[in-house]
Amino acid sequence: MGEALPYIDSEDQLENEIQHWKNHSFVPHHLKLHDVLDSLTNGRPLVEVKQEHPSRWVVTKLGSHGTKEAIFHTVAIWKWNSDMQTGNFVPPGEKVSSRVAESRIQDTPNNLCQTSYGCDTVRDKTLWDAQARFEELAAETAGFNAGKKPRRTWQDSTRDGPKDLYIMSAQIFCRRTRYSGRKEASVAYALHPWIAAIVKKPGSVYYANPDRPVVLEAAGNELRDITDTSPPYVKAGYLVWISFFVEFIIGTTHWFTTFTPCEIVRVGTVAPDLFGRTLKPAADGELEEPKSFLKAGHKFILNEDFPMDDGRRHTADIGDSGPGKLSRSGTASARDGPQAEVEGSSTVQFTAEDQQDCWYGRRELVEIPVTRSRSGTPLADWNDSNSESPLSSVDGEESDGGLIQAHSDQDVPSSSGTPALPAPPTATASTASASPLVVAGMKRPADVDESRARPKSREPEATSDQVVTRSRTSKGKGRAQ
């Protein structure tokens, strides 16, 4: 047995390990990624971009013959990976691994069948910087992207937003040609039964990718197959030395960059508090103050002259509080009344008073486009309800429009004494624009019938079905609930 891998539990130790392995080449023909990036900056490049065929360009060593890919190496903290043997390929009727997102599943062999490898880049943005620099080099190469196609937005290093994860990928299948026989014969690993069933099927046009990444462990002065170690896999928090090549794919509508790993070598274990979205530690000499909370027995004085029922406007600004207003957590002020609920999110409450004493007149219906953020928090748009709300996109993942439904544990009567309208049906996934918010008690200003709108009053009218209680003001005004 070799030596145990180091457990990295301090900032200094992690930085030392990263620098050590970034500068360690297991074989002489590998290029240190940081050296290559430096060469592109100082005007003495070590690499260039060449066309292999119309839809594929690769980064090669400067002055090399042919289009053999240059192999780079660096260090990363592992985040996650799909199944190392089958990736996102799942034949019909087979059990789907929890590692594969449903939207990514492929049940027939094609070029979308891939294994994905996620690297944590919260601390070190080297992979993102490298992608940006290689794409600049490609753009400077004569003939690249001659059709002026736009770059694919997924994993685009030029876009704003967090860059906390970088995903590499490798193909599961390769397509057979009259020139691929020698390459197909070089497959050196045991095929998973799902893969074997495809490539050995008579007439199949696919064969297993012979360049599937090798996963190893460095213990002492020896590399061992990961399956012969404990644990026999990589997981979040492992420090890995990783080699890869770079290619650019020109598709029918877009082009994009792929980093494809060749070898992944586990070289250490990083303490959980040193990677991922951890809190920023306090600076030297900065004391962490405890949070202050209200306590039982706290004395307070009410402002008896505050006009609680006059001049109140209802908005849905994130961060405000009050009747019908969303807080930053997505909740609303807690007062009894019918609720507007977002699926998988929080609740907005509207009181009977809110419904009847809105600034725009009588109790009617209002439609408000709503878009859900990635976290599920409703973001309301109080503009024209007919305007479309675009789908939002976070790190390449689109969030759908959400439907807010009005409902209550009991019917809330209208001013005429008739029951409130029922909640609308749930929206379907095919809805093109954001689903409307329909809440009993509201109407858009443009739709108000001025002849029917009652004048504003400091004392809202209560119907026979409403209970009037006294608020704690000096004037003893009633509040409809």
What report would you give on this structure?
- The chain has 481 residues and is an alpha+beta fold.
- It contains six helices and 23 strands.
- The strands form six sheets. Strands 1, 2, 3, 4, 5, 6, 7, 10, 11, 12 and 13 form an eleven-stranded mixed beta sheet that branches. A three-stranded antiparallel beta sheet has the order 15-14-20, with no helix packed on it.
- A hairpin with a 7-residue loop joins strand 22 and strand 23.
- Helix 2 packs across helix 3 (126-139).
- Mean pLDDT is 73; it is low at 279-289, 311-448 and 450-481.
Approximately what portion of the residues adopt beta-strand conformation? 25-35%
Average predicted local confidence, pLDDT: 73
Uncertain runs with pLDDT below 50, 5 residues or more? 279-289, 311-448, 450-481
* Shape designation: globular
Following the backbone from N to C, one meets helices and strands in this order, namely: EHEHEEEEHEEHHEEEEEEEHEEEEEEEE
Subunit organisation of the chains: single chain
What does the radius of gyration come to? Answer: 31 Å
Which percent bin holds the helix content?
Answer: 10-25%
Q: How does the major sheet shape up?
A: 11 strands, mixed
Structural class: alpha+beta
Q: Report the total helices.
A: 6
